[in-house]
């Protein structure tokens, strides 16, 4: 599950750039690079500091609406984006198909590195709240999904890979080296309680 102080800290940080909050049966926190989803009752019952940050910004507890929160030196600027626009942004994070992926324990520049069973490596620059889960997967849309099956909470993060048109030869050579090796032990189950890759993903 999320850690209340971390979730509040992330929300307050993102307010400075602008963040969309979608309230309904679930509460969705949305930026261009990541999305976090948690059941509404968990926000109301367990995430009191995070709820306090929402009420501080809006002045009330939302019921069912979409708001954009942006904070500047004069206070909070609240707007209500079109549901269809936000809906498209939310939908872009949900993959049609997922496969298991593991953190390899290495990083490159700002990326924490992950590898699928077939050897494909993805870089994830982090962002968003940390979620202490045992299940991490990658979608066919390149979105890294960390999910707590017990609570219904999830974090979705966009990933990246080096490209010849934007990265130098040293980066491409290092990436080739990484891809040619298997960094994960797929025949071993992750020990209960271990948080796969959280230290790398929460290193902002």
In short:
With 204 residues, the chain is an alpha+beta fold.
Tally the helices: 6
Order of strands, widest sheet: 5-4-1-2-3-11-10-9-6-7-8
Shape: globular
Largest sheet: 11 strands, antiparallel
Q: What is the percent of helical residues?
A: 25-40%
* Strand content bin: 25-35%
Overall mean pLDDT score?
Answer: 89
Number of domains: 2
Structural class of the helix and strand makeup?
A: alpha+beta
Distance between the termini: 20 Å
Number of strands: 11
Low-confidence stretches: 191-204
Radius of gyration: 18 Å
Order of helices and strands: HEEEHHEEHEEEEEEHH
Question: Which key features would you list for this structure?
Answer:
alpha+beta; 11-stranded antiparallel β-sheet; 204 residues; 6 helices; 26% helix
Give structural notes.
The chain has 204 residues and is α+β, with helices and mostly antiparallel strands. The protein has helices at residues 4-15, 40-45, 48-58, 83-91, 169-179, 198-201; strands at residues 19-23, 26-30, 34-39, 65-72, 75-79, 98-108, 111-116, 121-124, 135-139, 143-148, 153-158. It has two domains: 4-91, no CATH class; 98-201, no CATH class. Mean pLDDT is 89; it is low at 191-204. Helix 1 (4-15) packs parallel to helix 3 (48-58).
Helix-strand layout with pairing:
Blueprint: H1 4-15, E1 19-23, E2 26-30, E3 34-39, H2 40-45, H3 48-58, E4 65-72, E5 75-79, H4 83-91, E6 98-108, E7 111-116, E8 121-124, E9 135-139, E10 143-148, E11 153-158, H5 169-179, H6 198-201
